[in-house]
Amino acid sequence: MERTDVIIIGSGINALVAGAILSKADNKVLICERNSEPGGAIKTATTATLPGFTHELLSSWHPLFVGGPAYAELKADLEAHGLVYLNTDKPTGVVCRGGSAVLSTDLQATAGEFARLGGWRSMDIHAQ
Ligand SMILES: Cc1cc2nc3c(=O)[nH]c(=O)nc-3n(C[C@H](O)[C@H](O)[C@H](O)COP(=O)(O)OP(=O)(O)OC[C@H]3O[C@@H](n4cnc5c(N)ncnc54)[C@H](O)[C@@H]3O)c2cc1C
User: Fold this and answer.
1) Which helix or strand (DSSP H or E) is residue 75 part of?
2) What is the distance between the alpha carbons of residues 105 and 87, in angstroms, rounded to a whole number?
3) Using CA atoms, how far apart are residues 19 and 75, in angstroms rounded to an integer?
4) pLDDT band for position 128 (50/70/90)?
5) How far apart (Å, rounded) are the C-alpha atoms in residues 99 and 47?
6) In angstroms, what is the span from residue 71 Cα to ligand 1's centroid?
7) Beta-sheet strands, E only, within the chain
8) Are the CB atoms for 42 and 21 separated by under 8 Å?
9) Ligand 1 proximity of 12 Cβ (cutoff 6 Å)
């Protein structure tokens, strides 16, 4: 058997990030996954809806990763392997009792949406 410094069971995003960072620190890492594909709850499929469309079946909030320290550390390596994050200036929105708001990558535009709804604190985002 080859020498292994670290064995990680499962290949979800936390395992992959940990494995990548440990590898960059010259550790030999073995990641064991029981499913046929790595990635855990990150799973892309081309057969979910219409032909020609590719969907992420579970995860949608990739900004949580892109805005975090792990992405900052691994960005260059991921891009060297072909990762490209495409974005839109209106990536998400919220529906609440007071109406709906489109959230923008532009801070002023998002602040304007919340102001239009009367402010974040006055909104009830739990019920509808
Ligand atoms: C429906 C849904 C939507 C979500 N949407 C988002 C989102 O939009 N944005 C976001 O940030 N998070 C989202 N999450 C949460 C996110 O999926 C989890 O936080 C993340 O996947 C956790 O990653 P993980 O590395 O801990 O493990 P997981 O992604 O759960 O992966 C665990 C892996 O370990 C493998 N494994 C387990 N036990 C063994 C074993 N004994 N031997 C071998 N392999 C094993 C599993 O097969 C799996 O591949 C969502 C979760 C769900 C369920």
Assistant:
1) helix 69-80
2) 9
3) 15
4) very low
5) 34
6) 17
7) 6-9, 29-32, 44-45, 55-56, 92-96, 99-103
8) no
9) yes
